[in-house]
Design goal:
One of its GO terms (molecular function) is ribose-5-phosphate isomerase activity. The chain is α/β, with parallel strands linked by helices. The chain has 2 domains: 3-126 and 215-234, Rossmann fold, CATH 3.40.50; 138-211, ACT domain (Alpha-Beta Plaits). The chain is built from 6 helices and 13 strands. It binds ribose-5-phosphate. Ribose-5-phosphate binds next to loops.
Length: 235
């Protein structure tokens, strides 16, 4: 089974188990969420479900609109029943790295408004510790004018290297949906836990907007496996 199939079975299972009539759904970002939106649209059509979908990015908004789903926002729906989102890595304690695709701030806001954050992923995201499989570091979204002092402070305190994420089809850095830059922190592999404190500490640096560390947020994770099965992990 391909990686895409593994993403799809995880996404379908999450939607089937968590979404029912009148659910307000947070729609995450990334390549796995595409399958979740596909399944939401299929079920709306087949079962006549009434759903409201709250996007976590420009991409998610487009997915919702293109699928003909009802688009909502936090002004009208400050309480979300479940947010369904991908992850770059999930550790044994259900700490997540997110933001590999540049979306983390709105994802964390939406997840914080949700009764449940459900992670959907393929088996390459399932790790004992962060950095075991995902090698692109922990994204930190920062106000552009502050990227150098923030970079230097995190490196001085915790070690490792922080790289300004550069755009591919544009000269210069990636600019997030919120107009910010992203520093990817390639943290030293001596850091294996204590992410809650590290996250809080980094968040206190002026100019840090959000980190891609999601600690104590995910309630359940579905991992699609190569053999066609899906395993679940709960917080
Ligand atoms: O910035 C992107 C988001 O945090 C994604 O949810 C995360 O990168 C996982 O994306 P994918 O499902 O494409 O692996």
């Amino acid at each position: 089974m391909s990686l895409e199939q593994a993403k799809k079975i995880a996404a379908f299972k999450a939607v089937d188990e968590y979404v029912r009539n009148d659910t307000v759904v947070g729609v995450g970002s990334g390549s796995t969420v595409v399958y979740a939106v596909q399944r939401l649209a299929e079920r709306v059509k087949a079962e006549g479900l009434r759903l409201v979908c709250i996007p976590t990015s420009f991409q998610a908004r487009q997915l919702i609109i293109d699928a003909g789903l009802v688009l909502g926002d936090l002004e009208q729906n400050p309480r979300i029943d479940c947010a369904i989102d991908g992850a770059d890595e999930v550790d044994a304690d259900m700490v997540l790295i997110k933001g590999g695709g540049g979306c983390l701030l709105q994802e964390k806001i939406v997840a914080s408004c949700a009764a449940q954050l459900i992670v959907i992923a393929d088996y390459t995201k399932d790790s004992k510790r962060l950095g075991e499989q995902y090698k692109k570091g922990i994204p930190v979204e920062v106000v552009p004018m502050a990227y150098v002092p923030i970079r230097d402070r995190i490196a001085a305190k915790y070690g490792g290297k922080l790289q300004l994420r550069m755009a591919v089809a544009k000269a210069g850095p990636v600019v997030t949906d919120n107009g910010n830059f992203i520093l990817d922190w390639h943290f030293p592999d001596t850091i294996v836990n204590g992410w809650d404190e590290i996250n809080r500490d980094i968040m206190m640096i002026p100019g840090v907007v959000e980190t891609g560390l999601f600690v104590k947020m995910a309630t359940k994770a579905y991992f699609g496996l190569a053999d066609g099965s899906v395993i679940e992990r709960s917080a």
